[in-house]
Amino acid sequence: MRWQPWEYQYILIFLFFILSKNKKQFIQLTSLLFVATYFYSGLNKLNGGFLTSTWEHLILIKTFGISLKFIQNNLWIHYLGALLALFEIFFGLGLLFFKNKKIIVLLIAFIHLLILILFGLVFNYNSIILPWNFGMILLLIVLFYNNNEQTISPLFFKKKINFAFMIILFVMPISNKFGYWYSYFSFNFYNGNSKK
């Protein structure tokens, strides 16, 4: 399986476009894709692999030049990386539940800009980082910045297709933990668990 997360995301957006009965349904489904992306991306980062390989090695040592010895002598710095995971979970929940989403959108856009600058421009870590993060910022602004409505309402679940997509977006990623769903389709982005 060689599909990348951005391919999966854009294919889902295309399916939402084709199968939606109206503009509101398309926007709701695409918004839920973003909620699932941030929520599960953060949840998947709550592990020791992320703290060691991504947080310590890639961010602290390679990006900011902090020595491994300093990190080992200050163990709290190692666990500080868990805040990144918790922020992502909070971002996903904020996009789902907050009525005024402007502050959340600006915070997420800022994180994407940091990723663009550090890993896209400075380190050229992965070539897809530039267009994908730029696209994420644009879609976030379009979907959420001026949206003061709830992402979903009880009427949303009356359409069977919406229920099916909810299973794909929110149930199937959990089954990845048991080996039944592809890792990238579970929004595992730089989670430090490369063996999976």
What report would you give on this structure?
The protein is an all-alpha fold and 196 residues long. The protein has one domain (25-186). Helices cover 69% and strands 0% of the residues. The chain has helices spanning 5-19, 23-44, 48-63, 68-73, 75-80, 82-97, 102-122, 129-145, 160-175. Helix 2 (23-44) runs parallel beside helix 9. It is globular and about 55 Å long.
Shape by Cα distribution = globular
Uncertain residue ranges: none
Count of helical regions? 9
What's the total count of β strands?
Answer: 0
Task: Round the mean pLDDT to the nearest integer and report it.
Answer: 86
Helical percent range? 55-70%
Q: Rounded to an integer, what's the Rg over CA atoms?
A: 17 Å
Structural class: mainly alpha
**Helices and strands, in N-to-C order?**
HHHHHHHHH
Number of domains: 1
Proportion of beta-strand residues: under 5%
Main β sheet profile? none
End-to-end separation in angstroms reads 12 Å
What keyword list fits this structure?
globular, 196 residues, mainly alpha, single chain, 9 helices
Question: Which helices and strands occur, and which strands form pairs?
Answer:
Layout: H1 5-19, H2 23-44, H3 48-63, H4 68-73, H5 75-80, H6 82-97, H7 102-122, H8 129-145, H9 160-175
Helix pairs in contact: 1-2, 2-6, 2-9, 6-7, 7-8
Provide a compact summary of the structure:
With 196 residues, this protein is mostly helical. The protein has helices spanning 5-19, 23-44, 48-63, 68-73, 75-80, 82-97, 102-122, 129-145, 160-175.
